[in-house]
Amino acid sequence: MSAEIKSKQFYHEKSTALMDRHLAQPNWSLHQKMALACRILAAEGHESALAGQLSVRAEKPNTYWMLSYGYGFDEATASNMLLVDDDLNVVEGDGMPNPANRFHLWIYRQRPEINCLIHTHAPYVSALSMVGEELAVAHMDTCMFHDDCAFLKDWPGLPIGDEEGEIITSAMGGKRAILLAHHGQLVTGTTIEEATMLGIWIERAARLHVLARSIGAIRPIDPNLAKEAHDWRYKPKAVGATFSYFSRRVLRQSDECLH
To answer: Bridge partners of 64?
Structure first.
């Protein structure tokens, strides 16, 4: 007798229940998770001297945590984070905010569901941004960007003013990510873990895009199946487990970022 064929929804619900039961997360503080996220991105090739930015919405309205300017992602620790207000004035901590973080403030104002922003100039994202192509989502591993990655086709210049913030926010619309022409990438998340996962995978998606184009045209995938894979990748426990995995890789080298 053949086994009963169950629906995918049955297995979605079963796997979600198992994730909730088995995928516990370490009890890291907010600053420790910020430092881990920076170190993860550095290890994944996202560092670009001082150009990388990570910010997190703070508990007090209109305040945000960010890495003090002058430190690279690979130098981030729980102790070199700054709390700033809605005009990048330091509220807590000792250091200088990154002036390019000003455009983050615009996105936070317009998108209350967003709690973390990550912007980097990773090499494959940057290469793709130079040729004027939108990110191709045609592989199972990168379906979290299906219908969820905007494209800013014209470079508005150095993002230290309000104009750039307004332009980038408008181009993003309601999407989680954006490819910035002649610049790099920006990803967002409801959590640090979610934004970090997107930061890792947008660079991998860009790399796959560049590699695939080197051997032929990219074949599109079924949008309904892409939507299913997109939603699967955003299961909170799976996102958290992914962050923990990359964190363990960082911590095997050194735990200084936690201090």
So the answer is: 57, 84
Cβ neighbours around 232 below 10 Å, total: 16
pLDDT per residue as tens digits for the range 133-156: 999 999 999 999 999 999 999 988
How much is the pTM?
0.93
